[in-house]
Amino acid sequence: MALYKLIKPGTIFLSAFICFTSTVRADPAHPDSLKKELHYGSFTKQSISLFPFRDSYQKYFSLFSGVAEQTYRWDRWVHVRGSRHDQIGYSIDGIDIRSGFTGEPVFFVLPEALKSMGLDKEPGAWVSSCPALFYQHIKTGTEKFGISMSAESDGFTPLYQKKIGTYSYGFKNITGTVSGPVLTDKIRFFAAGRFLHFDDHFRKFWDGFTFTADKSVMREPDFYDNPRTFKEFFGTDTIRVKPGNIPAAWSDKYDLQAKISADFNPLYINLIGLYSAEKKSINRYPVMNLFNTGRIPLIKKESYLVSMQNFYKPSRFFKGSLKINLFSDFLQQVDPLFGDNFLLYADSAAIAQKGIDVNYHGEEQGYFKSPYSFYTSFGFIFNVPGDDITFFQKQQETGLTINLDAELKKGAHIFKAGTGFDKRTVRIYSVKGYDRNIKSNVAGLCNYIYSEHIDKSTDISGEKGIGINQYVTTFGYDGLGNPTDKSSMAFDGPRRPVTIYGYIEDTFKKDIVEIYTGLRFDRFSTNALVFPDPKMPPEPICRLGRYFQNEDKFTNAKPQTFFQPRIRMTVTLSSQIQMHVSWGKYAQIPQFKNIYATRYQLMDYVYDGYLHFNVQGPYAGAATTTQTEAGISCMISSCFSGSVTAFNLTSSNLLEYGHQNTLLQEDYLQKYPVLKNSGILSSKGLEISGTFYKNGFLLKGNYTISQVTGTSTYPMSVWYDNDYFETNPHTAILRPLEYNQPRMLNLLCLYKSGQNAALPVRNITASLLFQYTSGHSFYVWDGSVCSCCNTSDLGGLLLDYDPRCRGSRVAEILTPPVYTFDAKIEKSFYISSIRMSAYIYAHNLFNRKNILHVYWRTGSADSDGYLQKYHSFLKQYYPDEYFTLYNIVNNGHRQHFARAHGGDLYGHPREIRFGISFSVN
Question: Cα–chain-centroid distance for residue 716?
Fold first, then answer.
């Protein structure tokens, strides 16, 4: 903490002034080192160190042409050339780091540890089965021992206080690296570690408000009738939300990344270790949770990866490699008071020991509190202090991968061949929710457990376990959340997907022509549980209410095999001009969380009515993609190069909502909802890239024009209302997808002063990143007051996951364009062999309130249109305070959007950060 006391604006600027006037030595990293960026589409450590951002991998990847970044729900996803987010591959030093469960990368190399990064939009057969691959490489150890350390903060003002037109978010970052030889020059190591903290990791445009509730009457919902005043419950008659920051939204993250390289020619060995641990408080509804921040859910995440890579190079004509990788990714969402022991969430004695009044809700029921422990004021929900609001869940994915590759150079040919094996183990445990995901059903689960006298010594593999399934979704864990490797009558064992692949390829080069041909084969075994015949789901033999479990009536999904030919031809017309054309096929299994349903869930879909919004697709096959591209690259001068690439991409077998028709005679069993491989998309566009370098100044830019259309593929858009009652709700009509960005522009300017620059600007580096997107496709819908969400404080918000709420489609629009500027300036100086620097950087420099999404009814981010359209109707039932609260809570602070859709309508506000660093070589 003492180190952070140095990071204050006055200290930074004073240090920078001393540097400006006293520097006597130039930066040995000559600005011409940036010239490497002139010839490559990737970024190397020379430019990465100057980037004016550092927080998320999505920001790095969005620098490349053809990449659209889209915030959906609470996730920031990237899409390459119109592909879905889970069709993308990710690697670090050739190691697959893509989570099969989420489709997202498990790790991102720290900026200080990045040697290079890039995007391969036409991967070869040996690279990936995905149509696009983001790759990263970790730095290797240096010849001499060296260390570095940096510290950053945005603490220029306390929380909730505005300065420089913005707020601080409690950002703190400490990063250190160590590099050098180990015992001998033949063995080198590199290690980097980081601590990252936010007091407010959400970073929203947040105005705050004050509302006096002295006339309001609180009432418990549904079956309780015990009205009390607002002050009786909360000890105040004023609702006061502070501006600028979201309370109880902190996060801590620790990262450790290391690489040991050994050169025992002809044998070379790399040992790579990655570790990440994160904990954060998830206050997604800060108004509703205003009086109960002590029990905001915690998310805990821990991941590690260990890789041993052996390379054998006996000659310049042959090399082989063997890679063995182990990884684990574990995530859980828990209550801050009782953690993983959810049985205590509703235990009266345990709650009393924490100083919480268990009778505040007016009634005690058996061993647990009533789940209806929130209260309404003029229709708006507020959580009562001390009540559990956690959706308890945990999930784990572990994996083992083995890759064997060989390369032979013979004449004008380079032959490659290889094979690989990837086995995962996936587990999940989740307590189901109720009332549109306001709360979890922990109380109901505890009531069942206590009433059936279930404890750790109880055998819950039979009838008692079956009863638990109405409260939880689980496989790989038993009903109490304990890991299990076996399947029983009540619970499923873990899922164990396996992928086996092989490839062979040839690169032929002669004169000005280079021809690449490759063939890859992948065999995907999801091992998902399915009905043997989806048209004839089994009759339940054990049906208590909605319960059904019978392992013998299910089977594992059949493996799927895909052959993926790829070809590329490159013609070098001169030292300045090169042309290429390529064609390839790709296959990628979608994220497992969309595939893995439990036996109970499968029968629940079939026998419990038709409309479900969280359906899994256990029959899901790989999404298949065919991609064609053609381009030309030109070295126009020694300072300027450019390229133009046209692409066409089509995908099929995408997951989307649909019906499975049955052969059963009962009316209510003639069809049931599923995720089907019936979605298609078409993407075509033009990518223009250019790089200019001169005298330490580097300008890289790219512009993308694209059109992405498809069927209403889950989950970016769901059913259309006029399809709801159709037997086959989807047609081959291609509509613009919601993550389509028709135009995108990136401009990255980097400047590094030279050795002979004037003293005031000597050893200065500066960068500016401008990003523009034209907005994404969106459909505006209308609906009557009867089609609105039935939760009072959600008002008239039309929901994307319920087609019955939409009414009719009004128009297709583009959301407003997004403009962002990020900037950084750094001043370096030297004391002997110690390099020191001070820097400042800002995200969203001009504090633009960029609109990422809009309301379904209005196509605007300012108002959902509900009050305007139905004011006279609502006036009959609600007092004036309802309209006031609706405007400040929903329209002003978007709480109803966050609850129904997730995320926010706007991007991040301006963030200003200061830092200091030093390194010794």
Answer: 14
Which amino acid belongs to residue 257? Q
Report the pLDDT value the prediction gives residue 616, as an integer from 0 to 100. 84
List alpha helices for 615-669, DSSP H.
Answer: none
For residue 72 the two structure tokens come to 């959906």
The band of 785, judged by pLDDT with boundaries at 50, 70 and 90, is low
Confidence of residue 226 (pLDDT cuts 50, 70, 90): low
Confidence (pLDDT) at 215? 66
Are 133 and 90 spatial neighbours (Cβ–Cβ below 8 Å)?
yes
Q: How far apart are CA 113 and CA 918, in angstroms?
A: 15
What sections of 589-670 are H helices per DSSP?
599-607
Quick one: what percent of the chain has pLDDT higher than 90? Answer: 50
Mean pLDDT of 636-657: 90
Cα gap 382→589, rounded to integer Å: 42
- Position with higher pLDDT, 390 vs 520: 520
Q: Alpha-carbon distance 497 to 522, whole Å?
A: 13
Residue 714 identity (one-letter amino acid): Y
Q: What is the model's pLDDT at position 658? A: 77
Q: Which residues pair with 764 in a beta bridge?
A: 827
**Residue holding tokens 């080192």?**
33
From CA 121, how far away is CA 227, in angstroms rounded? 62
The Cα 40–Cα 37 span in angstroms is: 6
CA distance linking residue 132 with residue 87, whole number of Å: 8
Mean pLDDT of the chain: 84
DSSP result, 14-50: HHHHHHHHH--S--SS-GGGGGGGGT-SSEEHHHHTT
* Closest among 407, 416, 405, 409 to 506, alpha carbons compared: 416
> How far is Cα 360 from Cα 358, in angstroms, rounded to an integer?
6
pLDDT confidence bin for 371, thresholds 50/70/90:
very low
CA dihedral 125, 129, 135, 137 (to 10 degrees): -60
Polymer length in residues for the chain: 921
Q: 818-831 and 184-198 as β-strands: parallel, antiparallel, unpaired?
A: unpaired
594 touches 616 (CB < 8 A): yes
Q: Amino acid identity, residue 616?
A: Q
DSSP character at residue 891: I
Residues 717/800, Cβ–Cβ less than 8 Å: yes
Q: Does an H or E element contain 483, and which? A: none
Six-digit token string for 38: 């002139």
Task: Provide the pLDDT for residue 796.
Answer: 75
Q: Quick check: 380 pLDDT over 70?
A: yes
799 to 314, 608, 623, 794: CA distances (angstroms): 62, 22, 27, 10
Strand order in the sheet with 374-377: 228-229, 217-219, 374-377, 380-383
Sign of the Cα pseudo-torsion (472, 473, 478, 483, in order): negative
Nearest-angstrom CA–CA distance, 374 and 382: 6
Phi, psi of 603 (to 5 degrees): -75, -30
CB 71 within 8 A of CB 903: yes
Element (H, E) at 565: strand 560-572
Most trustworthy range by pLDDT among 515-529, 715-729, 780-794: 515-529
The Cα 699–Cα 749 span in angstroms is: 5
- Angstrom CA distances, 431 to 173, 332, 481, 490, 821, stand at 35, 12, 10, 16, 42
